[in-house]
Amino acid sequence: MWMRFAKRLIFLVALTGLVGACASHTVQKVTPPSVAMSRPATPQESWLLVDTQANTLSVMWGDRPVEVFDRIVVGSSGVGIKQRRGDNKTPIGVFRVGWINERSRFRTFFGLDYPNLDHAEQALRDNRIDWLTYQRIRAALLDGRTPPQDTPLGGQIGIHGVGNGDPAVHAAGINWTAGCVALDNRQIDALRPWVQMGMRVEIR
Questions:
Q1: N or C: more exposed end of the chain, with fewer CB within 10 A?
Q2: Mind listing the pLDDT tens digit for each residue in 36-72?
């Protein structure tokens, strides 16, 4: 009985260490490596589709998947319209890769330009942000910059690996992130050659 309790306690401690993954990430723009990478499409033709129903992330070329990663996990509060910072929800929508951090504690972090205009406009209508905050987000996006990550809508949303976290928690299929999309470390390494700055990412 005691051994079963101890194992459960260890598992819960590991899970607690993983939750909050995205919230503490530091934004860092890193230029993608210039090494030649073989791929069946150019960065302009390829994009990423995150299917939260099938738990897959697909590298798409037009409407055709060219590589599929399964058993992905999302925020601990599921997916949908992210209401506020800290709600642990993975936002749905169309985004762009705004920065790449290859020194993240989650191995590699592909930061998304969340909140996008759709999220900002909805939040303004719902009085979750004020007009000035909306204008800051809108101006950054129209200028091709990552929107401010310090608004009430939250930020630091991206795609990353498990890093030094417990791979058993991820393998169990538990949605453990603070709103990001997570792959295991092997998958994030395999995804890295496909991802470029400005790449389109659709989460649905």
A1: N
A2: 333 444 555 899 999 999 999 999 999 999 999 999 9
Question: Is 9 within a domain?
Answer: no
Is 32 contained in some domain? yes
Q: With a cut of 50, which residues of the chain have pLDDT below it?
A: 5, 7, 9-14, 21, 24-41
Asked if residues 178 and 42 have their Cβ atoms less than 8 Å apart, the reply is no
Q: What is the pLDDT of residue 166?
A: 86
Burial of residue 67 (number of CB atoms within 10 Å: 0-12, 13-18, 19+): middle
Q: Say if 89 falls within a structural domain.
A: yes
**Nearest Cα to 109, choosing from 50, 42, 185, 203?**
185
Domain count, the chain: 1
